[in-house]
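S1.2 Input.
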Amino acid sequence: MKFISWNIDSLNAALTSDSARALLTRETLDSVIAHDADVIAIQETKLPRTGPSKKHMDVLNEKFPDYEMVWRLSEEPARKSYSGTMFLYKNHLKPTVDFPVIGAPDTMDSEGRIITLEFDEFYLTQVYTPNAGSGLVRLKERQLWDEKYADYLASLDEKKVVIATGDFNVAHKEIDLANPKSNRLSAGFTDEEREGFTKLLDRGFTDTFRHVHGDVTGVYSWWNQRAVTSKVNNSGWRIDYWLVSNRAADKVLKSEMIDSGSRQDHTPLLFEIDLG
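S1.3 Output.
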């Protein structure tokens, strides 16, 4: 099966705006569509609290005529038009859809961060992990999130193979970002967040990019859009992942980035696996 994951950083803007950035996003979205994946996971949709509008749905149905869609929105008491996730899956697939609550702190369980699809032989789950924030103001809550999320994935893994994807908001090792020394205290590269990700993997999961590509360097999934030359200079971070239960790691066929051209921010991730 073929899967794609992408933190689109506002599906709302991509479908309704004609800004230069929105046009670049739509070009990347067309690249995603061309891969004809079985399932597409999208994070940070930033859709309104009422859900996709008629305009949103018209564009989505035009671009994805062969897909069913499920989404999760930010709900009270969380902020409006914040976070949010969506799955699009081929309409011949019939997964069971779950919107798990993991006992996360603050408003994190209300921010639309996790959707899980259950298939006969595996779970496919996506996450938009909370950012520790400017000044690391949310680091303690983030640490507790990491513990709760690891417990959740491990509970699924007890039942069947787990495939987990999304924006995990952490560069695990120094080779996962261009400038580790100057980012030691930055959100996404603190010792606490990196340790949280290590503990998650230690619960029985494989980082499939590293499994396929080893210790290759200079391959990233995110470039800071506030730094004008970040992508030109490839000053990126690898903070988006496809994880899989250890026992299925040898079934992975591909785990790689999809080129998003000059668009900065996140790039989509392609993943292929044969669980046959």
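S1.4 Remarks. The radius of gyration is 17 Å.
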